[in-house]
Specification:
The complex is a heterotrimer of chains A (about 130), B (about 300) and C (about 220). Chain B is an alpha/beta fold and about 300 residues long. Chain B has eleven helices and eight strands. In chain C, about 40% of the residues are buried. The chains are: A mainly alpha (about 130), B alpha/beta (about 300), C alpha/beta (about 220). Chains B and C meet through helix 5 and helix 6 of B and helix 8 of C.
């Protein structure tokens, strides 16, 4: 359709929004994302039947967790649209961008990018066990 | 001759009347005396509640003693929520030793309803087993552990039953069970739904239980529409028909409490006519001063002197 | 299985406040089944804590590690090579596991990230409910498979009490009345006459009240 949408939106393609789990959304914020949204099929039209319904519930859970840890649940959202709705896709991208811009950057960034990189590295450490 | 006045009255065939005094939320015995003063001469026995609705009040034991000193025949209520079998047996011996000879065995409202919802509850034994415990102490002279009791407690054993709780179909059976366990009198939850009460009494009579236990019908006068509504919606196991609330609404605001008394007196008269009902238990909570007029209006004054 | 709930975030934050290097332990058994402390939940809590602490300007290093079980010494021992690298251990295992790890690593504090609650079953996906409180003296044969100790809020043996309304317990309108369940079962099996049997006193000495319990199989000891 060659419609434009803001360049700050990074798209991660998945076969179904039901593939998204809570940790994926949280990791995005750990890696410095200012906002995350899921764009899934219209309810009732999920190719995998209920994947988008599960996604919605998980988004609600992530909102609660983000509120809990002080990042802010408004930074994550669930949208539903069909693959034919190009206009809507662009509209959502703009809407979410504006919303996040108004909220400001991810609060973890205020103490410097260096520190952020270090904590991401720490998060990826796994213990070596003598099993 | 029984040490319990209530027992003597019931055994004589007279229609019995019992009242109720809720102890104060402090260490002031005068509060109990004041309530008792209203009831003097109008009841055969008076219940003393035991931390009702799990709200801490002066103990039922102490309050019963205060009333005993005033010349009443106290009916000490005992719940299973706060005491284990050791404390229970101990309190029973103490009560009997001090001339408290009626004990009402109850499970007890759950602590979440009261002012100490974080407390641990006990429920070592249940009300059915409490009835059995009293019978064992009194008739066999044995503690639950099997040892001999030196000085058996003389107790008239009572219990409660709620004809309005679910499941309805076992409520008469449960009373039969309590009678078989040793309960000698029962006080019911307060009656507003007379049709249901009559149905329950029918089931009770079918089981022959009315001949095994003295049944006292619970009566509470409604002070206000708010009180009736509160009981309808917020008290578990209460059945308050809409017709009653409508009747209270049908009179002017100043006349509501009078209407409440009227309804209570009518209820007394109606239950008196039901076969198997041996008396009434008047629970005029925080309204003890109206008991005398209710007893008079129902034709139940003076109370019999049975020796 | 044992069911637990994660502690409120504020409580967890307060507990780890003095620390910068934490080992966050999970368990692959009960707490995984009730979605409280398995590897997924460990990952989520670790992520939340990093986000929070980063935001506060006091970053925290959290290593995520889930043991097969926390209640058998073989698994708990497997932590020995690494446990010394951390200032503290926080565990999402049940109370048994939290304590057991502490017993094995005497100079390590083990903080509880969960509140261990009850022994129960999965009534449906995402819903777990209490069934057994381990009284040590099972009478399920007498009550047709429904436990009055656990399913009745007052553990009545000759219930129901006068607060049972519409099949629900007076304590919580979402909780079925345990005795309603028993009566229904008696009806279902045509055994209503059993209701008239008075259940005898409970021997509570076999439950926790009798003292912390132990079971020993001499033939299994090495």
């Amino acid at each position: 359709m060659r419609l434009t949408y803001p360049t700050n939106v990074k798209i991660v393609k998945v076969p179904c929004t039901g593939r998204m789990d809570i940790i994926h959304m949280l990791k995005a914020f750990e890696n410095g994302a200012d906002g995350v949204y899921l764009a899934g099929c219209l309810e009732g039209e999920c190719h995998f039947l209920r994947g988008n319904l599960r996604a919605r519930k998980r988004v609600a859970q992530v909102q609660a967790l983000l509120n809990e840890c002080g990042i802010g649940g408004e930074r994550v959202a669930m949208y539903n649209l069909s693959s034919a709705q190009g206009q809507r896709f662009a509209e959502i991208a703009r809407e979410m961008t504006e919303k996040i811009r108004a909220l400001g950057p991810n609060p973890i960034k205020k103490h410097g990018a260096e520190r952020r990189a270090q904590s991401v590295k720490n998060g990826e450490q796994r213990a070596q066990c003598a099993e | 001759m029984s040490a319990s006045n209530l027992e003597r009255v019931l055994k004589s065939g007279s229609f019995a009347v019992t009242g109720e005094c809720g102890p104060p939320r402090g260490a002031d015995a005068e509060a109990i005396r004041k309530k008792g003063a209203h009831l003097k001469g109008y009841v055969d026995g008076v219940n003393v509640t035991d931390n009702q609705t799990s709200v801490v009040r002066m103990s039922s034991f102490a309050s019963s003693l205060v009333l005993k000193e005033m010349g009443f025949d106290p009916i000490m209520q005992m719940v299973c929520r706060d005491r284990n079998r050791i404390a229970i047996q101990s309190d029973v011996l103490g009560a009997a030793a001090l001339g408290i000879n009626n004990l009402l065995c109850l499970s007890g409202d759950h602590q979440k309803f009261g002012d100490h919802p974080t407390a641990k509850n006990v429920y070592d034994i249940d009300s059915m087993q409490l009835i059995q415990t009293l019978k064992r102490l009194r008739d066999e002279g044995k503690f639950l552990g099997g040892e001999e009791v030196k000085g058996r407690p003389d107790m008239f054993i009572g219990c409660a039953e709620n004809p309005f709780a679910d499941p309805f179909e076992i409520r008469a059976m449960r009373l039969a069970k309590k009678a078989a366990a040793g309960a000698q009198f029962v006080q019911t939850q307060c009656i507003f739904n007379l049709d249901k009460f009559e149905k329950w009494m029918e089931m009770v009579r079918d089981l022959g239980v009315h001949e095994k236990i003295y049944i006292l019908a619970g009566i509470t006068p409604c002070k206000s529409i708010g009180m009736a509504r509160y009981m309808k919606t917020s008290v578990p196991g209460m059945d308050v028909p809409d017709a009653l609330i409508d009747r209270l609404k049908g009179v002017s605001k100043e006349k509501v409490s009078e209407e409440g008394i009227k309804i209570a007196v009518e209820t007394i008269q109606r239950v008196r006519a039901i076969k198997g009902v041996a008396g009434v238990h008047l629970m005029a909570i925080e309204w003890e001063e109206r008991v005398p007029e209710m007893v008079r209006a129902a034709g139940l004054y003076p109370r019999p002197q049975v020796n | 299985m044992i069911v637990a709930n994660r502690k409120p975030f504020e409580e967890i934050v307060e507990m780890v406040k003095p620390y910068r290097k934490v080992l966050l332990l999970g368990c692959n058994e009960c707490v995984t089944v009730c979605a409280t402390g398995g590897s997924k939940e460990v990952a989520v809590l670790a992520s939340e804590l990093r986000l929070y602490r980063e935001k506060e300007g006091q970053p925290i290093e959290i290593t995520e590690h889930t043991l097969e079980r926390n209640c058998d010494p073989e698994y708990v021992e497997s932590l020995r090579p690494m446990v010394g690298n951390y200032e503290v251990v926080m565990s999402m295992a049940c109370g048994c596991g939290i304590q057991f790890v502490g017993e094995h690593y005497r100079d390590m504090r083990v903080l509880p990230a969960v509140n261990t609650t009850f022994d129960g079953v999965a009534e449906e996906q995402g819903v777990w409910a209490e069934r057994c409180l381990g009284c040590g003296n099972c009478i399920l044969d007498k009550t047709l498979g429904i436990c009055p100790v656990t399913r009745c809020a007052k553990s009545l043996f000759n219930g129901p009490c006068g607060g049972s309304t519409g099949g629900k317990c007076e304590v919580n309108k979402d909780t079925p009345c345990g005795w309603q369940l028993i009566v229904d079962r008696l009806k279902e099996m045509n055994l209503m006459e059993k209701y008239m049997e008075i259940q005898p006193l409970k021997d509570w000495s076999t439950s926790h009240g009798g003292g912390p319990r132990k079971r020993v199989r001499e033939d299994l000891k090495l």
